[in-house]
UniProtKB/TrEMBL annotation:
It comes from the Bacteria. This is ABC transporter ATP-binding protein. Gene3D superfamilies: Tgt2/MlaC. The keyword Signal applies. Keywords: Signal. InterPro entries: MlaC/ttg2D, Tgt2/MlaC_sf. Residues 1-24 form the signal peptide.
Length: 211
C-alpha cells in the first residue's frame, strides 16, 4: 500500500509540473526560458515537499531521488558543476579524466539535492515570492520557505547559460549554504588524500552499487 502511495505521489508531482509549464508558455507574452524553468522547478519543489510530508520515513529518500532525477537532473549543468567541484585540481587532468568525472558525479549531485528536498518536507513554499535575477551569463531564482520551528529561509537555484543559450542549474543554495561548495570541500580533501584516480575509482564503485 505504501509503495503504491509513493508511486502515486511521484506521478502527481510530474503532472503538476507539466500542467504548470504548459500554462506558463500559453501567456500572450511568453516568459523567457529562465523564468519558465524557475517557475517549473519551484512548483515541482513545492509539490514534492508536500508529498514527502505524507510519506513514511523509509520511503522519503527514494521518492526524493526520483523527483530530482525526473525534474532537476535534466536541467543540471554537469560540466560546469564538475569544474567548480574540482577547482585547481582540474589543471592536471586531461579531457578524458574530466569527462569521466563529470559522468560519475551526476549520481552524487542527485543524492545531494534529494537530501535538500527531504529536509524541506512539509515546509510552506511561497510561489508568490519567486523572483529571478538575471545577468549576462549567470542568474539565480530565489523562493521564500517557512517551516515550523525554523527561521525563515530561501532556496536559491543558481543558473548558467550554456553555449546554446539555454539556462541550466549548477548549484542550489539552501539555508545560506552552497550545496556545491559543501560537496567541493569534501571532494578536494579526498583528492588530496587519495589522488584523483582513486577518487574516480570509488565513484565508479558507488555508481555500480546503485545500479
Amino acid at each position: 500500500m505504501r509503495t503504491w502511495f509513493s508511486a502515486f505521489a511521484l506521478v502527481a508531482v510530474l503532472i503538476f509540473g507539466l500542467s504548470f509549464s504548459a500554462h506558463s508558455q500559453s501567456d500572450n507574452q511568453p516568459a523567457s526560458q529562465l523564468d519558465v524553468l524557475a517557475q517549473d522547478l519551484s512548483l515541482q519543489f513545492k509539490q514534492a515537499t508536500e508529498q514527502l510530508a505524507l510519506l513514511p520515513v523509509n520511503e522519503r529518500d527514494t521518492f526524493a531521488m526520483q523527483v530530482v532525477i525526473a525534474q532537476l537532473a535534466p536541467h543540471l549543468d554537469l560540466e560546469f558543476s564538475s569544474l567548480k567541484l574540482l577547482g585547481k585540481h582540474v589543471r592536471g587532468l586531461d579531457r578524458q579524466q574530466t569527462a569521466e568525472f563529470t559522468r560519475l558525479i551526476e549520481s552524487q549531485l542527485v543524492n545531494m539535492y534529494a537530501q535538500v528536498l527531504v529536509d524541506y518536507r512539509g515546509a510552506d513554499v511561497s510561489l508568490q515570492s519567486l523572483h529571478t535575477n538575471q545577468g549576462r551569463k549567470f542568474a539565480e531564482a530565489a523562493i521564500d520557505i517557512n517551516k515550523p520551528n525554523r527561521e525563515h529561509s530561501q532556496l536559491i537555484f543558481k543558473f548558467k547559460q550554456d553555449t546554446q543559450g539555454q539556462w541550466r542549474v549548477y548549484d542550489v543554495i539552501s539555508r545560506h549554504v552552497s550545496q556545491l561548495s559543501v560537496k567541493r570541500q569534501s571532494l578536494v580533501l579526498k583528492i588530496s588524500e587519495i589522488g584523483f584516480e582513486q577518487l574516480n575509482h570509488e565513484l565508479r564503485q558507488a555508481q555500480a552499487n546503485n545500479i
